[in-house]
Amino acid sequence: MIRKTSVPELIYAWHESKQTGVGRPHMGASLIGGECDRYIWFNFRWALPPKFEGRILRLFKRGFVSEVELNTELRGIGLRVEDIDPATGKQFRFELMNGHFAGSCDGMVHGLAESPAKVHILEQKTANDRQYKALDKDGVRTAKWQHYVQMQIYMKMFHCKRALYLCVNKNDERIYDERIEYDPAVADLFINRAKNLITAAIPPQTLADGATCKYCDYRCICHGVQVPAANCRTCVHSTPQIELGQVPWLCEKFKMAISLRGQQTGGQCPGHMLMPYMMPSWLRVKDISSQGGLQYHLPDGSSLINTSEKFDGMLCLTSAKLHLLTPAMVPTVRDATEVFGSPPDTVPSSFPDIKCGVPDILPDTMPNTLPDTMPDAPDSVLVKTPATVKIDEHGTPQVVDPDNDLPF
Ligand code: SF4
Ligand code: SF4
User: Which CATH architecture has domain 20-199?
Assistant: First the structure.
C-alpha cells in the first residue's frame, strides 16, 4: 500500500496563499508577440485578477532558479554576463508610452566565441520536452514567435544587434541555444501593436480559431459568461495616457490621476461603472438609467442598474457585486432586494468554480445557491462622497490627497 501525505497539496496551497492577485502595471514586451490582441488587452485592463494554481507557481519559480544557475554557468565558461544595469543598479529595463509598455531583459552577454566583438541581449527560458523538440527542429522564429518578438524589442530598446537565446529542457537539462539577429521592422511593428492596444477603448476581436481559447485565462470574460473584476482599469471612466508628462491613468469622472494602488481598489469607488463592451452576453445594455448608472437587460426580462446608489424598486448592484453574479443567482438576489428594499449583501465571496471552456459555455448550469459567508458589505462606504475630493470653483471634483491617490 502506498501511504500518501498532505505535503504536496500544502505546498501548492502555500504558494497560492502568497499570490497578491494584483495585475501587472504595464503591458509587457514578453506578451506583445502573443497570438491574441484581445488577450493582451484583457491582461492590460485587469479583466480578472491573476490567479494560478500552486503547481504552476512552482513552475514559474523553477524558471527563475534556472536563470540564476545558467548565469553562473555562463560566467564559469568565461563569458561576461551583466544582469544588473550599472546606471540603475537594477535589472535592465525599458519603458515606452509613459510607462504603459515596458520590459526587463535577463542581461547582456560579452565575449561569445562566435561573435566576440558584439554584445548580445541574453534571454533565458525553460521548456517542456515537446516545446524543446519544436525549437530544436524549427528555431526560435518559427517555434517561439513570442520569444522572438520579445528579443527584437529588447534589441531595439537596448541598442544591440544580436541576442543569445538559451532554453533549458526541463526533462533532461539539455540547453537549446541560438543567436538571433536584429530585425527593426519586427520591433517597430510590435511596438506599434502595443500602442494600438494600450489606447484601444474597447476590446479587440476574438480569435477566429478557438484552439488557443481553450486554455485562455480570460475565456469566461471573453466568451460572454463572467462579469469582469471591478478595478479602475475596467471602469468606463479610466483612460491610459501615453504621452510623457501626462498622468499615466486618468479618471475622467473625478478629473484626477489614479495611482497604481488606487487602481487596485477601484472596485470600492462610488463612481465605478463597468465598461459595457466587456460585459457578458447575458447582460445586454439597455440604457443609461435616469438615476445614473448603466442599465442592463437580464435574461428573465427584468433589468438591473450598475451603480453604487440605491433606488426603490430597482435592482442596483455595484460593479464589485456584479462581478460575482451569475444568471442563476438573479432571482435570489432580486427577491432579497424586494424584501429588504436594497441590494442584499448576499452575493458570493468568489465566482463559482465553473468550467467555461470553449465551446461548452453553459451559463444556465452555474449554481444558483449563495454561500453562507459573505464579503464585507461596502454599501455604507460606497454611497459616501469621498472626503478627499473637493469640488473646485468650476464645479469639477478635484483630489486633495497629497500623493494624488484615490479618495478611498
Ligand atoms: S478566449 Fe480566445 S479570443 Fe478570447 S482572449 Fe482568450 S485567446 Fe483571445
Ligand atoms: S476613480 Fe472611480 S470613477 Fe475613476 S476610474 Fe477609478 S473606479 Fe472609475
Answer: Alpha-Beta Complex (3.90)
